[in-house]
Amino acid sequence: PSRAGLTNDFTRFPQQMWEKVLSKVKKAVVFMDDKCAEALHWSGGAAVLLEAGARNLKEFSSFEACGANEPKAVFVVSTLLKGRTVDIIKDIISLSHFQYCVVITTVAHSVHLLANNVTTEMEGNPVFEQFEEKLCEWMGNMNYTAEVIRVPVVFAPVSQQLILTPTFAHLFPLLSPDLESINAKRPEKKRFGSLVDIDTHSLPVELQLEIKSLASALNSVFEATGTREESFAVGPMSRIIAGELANHPQAKNRRKTAPNKASIIFVDRTMDLTGAVGHHGDNLVEKILTVLEPLAGHVTDVQVDMLELTSLQRTPHSQTTLAPGCLAQTRSPAAQSLWEAMLTSKHKEAVMEVRRHLVETASKEKLPIKMSMGRVTPEQLCSYMQLFRRSWGALESHCGVLQLGLATAQTLRHPGLPRWDACLAFERLLLQALGDSEFPAVLRQLLPLMKPRGGEDSTASGSRSREDECGADELVLLLVYLYSLADEAQPADQDTEEEELEKLERELIGVLTLVITREPELSPLLQKLTGCANAEELTTERAHSAVEEMFDTLRGLSHTRDHLKQLRSVYTASDGVHQATYRPFLRQILEEVFHPDRVECPDIEHMSGGLTDLLKTGFSMFMKVSRPHPSDNPVLFLFLVGGVTPSELRLIKEVVATHKPGTQVLVLSTRLLRPTDIPELLFTTQRLLPDIGI
């Protein structure tokens, strides 16, 4: 196939996997866990199941069951068939009257063997076969039908250029506290000096299985698309994943015969936290994802309020009477092209594009539209959308574009949006300050921002009441932003700086604790950070220990690139003419990859399995062996471990267009990031112990 052919095959792969599931669902009630449901959501959603003949779709939960007239069930799960998953399947079957059960797991049989401590290669799928017998036992008759298969429905095609893996949304590169926990369990002499030294076998078994599942899922895409990949890695977690893929048992045969060549570069998110937590993205989708409520059970998509398309009045209950819309409009080509534009354009262009789509759609439907030029306002967008209420047909056929229009209008007029600009302005000040001062002096500039929320007496100085003032969430984001750049500050006398910094950190911890305890409502981030569901539960001690732990992690953030030789900084200092700027890590990587002189970058490490590598290095004294380079192949996959931001998608598109226009680039990532995801992944995620359902 042509180059475009290969990336198209990749974007079609999720659909092909769902077709395997659809072939099993006729006349069945389907039970699906949240992660699989999120993957399906971006491949057509529940509608495709119902069109394939499914009777119903239910949550994968012990509180669900079926009636006597529903003899067939299909379970779709993203976990190992062990532990909690098995308990839930057993509960559902015991409360129902099934005669036919199909269990589909996204986890490969080889990973099931490892999870059961079987290290030898085995014929067939014994773990699945044993589970089929169990299913018949629970259904109460060994002559009933049970089937257990693996289908990797882990990929969500979010756009032409981006595929996400909702199943691995919480997989994140390790940080210094994780190194400490790993070392604490090892004898003194066998402790690791840095994160780079850790190998797969030293990781907790849950994380090993998670990484092997990801490598296996990637292997299945390469297999289905006939791809022979060269793997490269930047960052410790990426090296481990790329190593697993390189040594995957089925991969060796595939690489001998596969016709299509591609390069895949794995990059750890921790190589550039500044870009993910900052507000400089100038991207509409980043703002939509930040201010609108997430869809229940989803990591990526958000709720769009549909009330304006109806004639209902807004009441306290209207929220529950009307289902929300969303951003995943996979069944409408017009909405999809608008979504692509929103995702990879600058904010202003994206908003103009939304207006253009609404105007064109309204004129097509001969709705009485008043054209207006100039600035796009949320009121103007809403007035266009309200025209569609008059015609049910128009509403139905353009529902996709209208949901994206509503998401845009609701974001532009959202009371939380001014805080975005407040953060951006402050980040710019901090960037400049880093070039002129020592780190403690820059960090001190955060203190005046740390004001508890205004009580009765909010006119008094020292409390915040205005919408555009930084709240607790924004303060946490600014701390991450600043600590990720700590090494860029002016050097100082080590001893005095450490003493000064310690004192300042104690002060910051105290003030931030106060800010958090004074919040009338806890944001989702603060709930996760403190482990409290509401402000009433929260004690000063809990807030204080959460903030202290947060600072333990913050201190290590400026060292995530220490092991790199060349790409060590994401900061360009002011030269007196230009201001200091943030320099995205991904741009630096791509400029290395597409360098016209095909220079070898020591930080982009080539990973390939097995003996040939050793032979090559041994022979290189006598023979000239050129090492593989990521730009050798016409197709490049970038796998961002820990998430990608919408503005990075635009950046990738721009750099490729400038440096090597013919190259096909497809971005794969564990999630699409909004700034507030980063503190959650840094401070509230069990990175060493992912929940794999055991």
Structure in words:
The chain is of the alpha/beta class and 694 residues long. It folds into four domains: 3-155, Rossmann fold; 158-272 and 584-677 and 684-693, Rossmann fold, CATH 3.40.50.1910; 293-413, no CATH class; 417-453 and 467-559. It is built from 28 helices and 14 strands. A seven-stranded mixed sheet has the order 6-7-14-13-9-8-12, with helices on both faces. Strands 2-1-3-4-5 form a five-stranded parallel sheet. Strand 10 (571-572) and strand 11 (581-582) form a beta hairpin. Helix 8 packs across helix 9, helix 12 (284-291) packs across helix 18 and helix 15 (347-364) crosses helix 18 (399-412). The longest helix is centred in the last third of the chain and has 24 residues, at 494-517. The model is unreliable at 456-460 and 610-616 (pLDDT under 50). This is Sec1 family domain containing 2. Keywords: Protein transport, Transport. Belongs to the STXBP/unc-18/SEC1 family.
Main sheet, how many strands, which sense, barrel?
7 strands, mixed
Give the terminus-to-terminus CA distance: 41 Å
Strand content: 5-15%
Order of strands, widest sheet: 6-7-14-13-9-8-12
Number of domains: 4
Low-confidence stretches: 456-460, 610-616
Write down how many β-strands occur, each being a DSSP E stretch of 2 or more residues: 14
Could you name the CATH class of the largest domain? Alpha Beta
CATH homologous superfamily designation of the largest domain: Sec1/Munc18 (SM) protein, domain 2
Shape: globular
Assembly context of the chains: single chain
CATH topology of the largest domain, what is it called? Rossmann fold
Helix/sheet category = alpha/beta
InterPro entries: Sec1-like (IPR001619), Sec1-like_dom2 (IPR027482), Sec1-like_sf (IPR036045)
Organism: Sparus aurata
Protein name: Sec1 family domain containing 2
Family: Belongs to the STXBP/unc-18/SEC1 family.
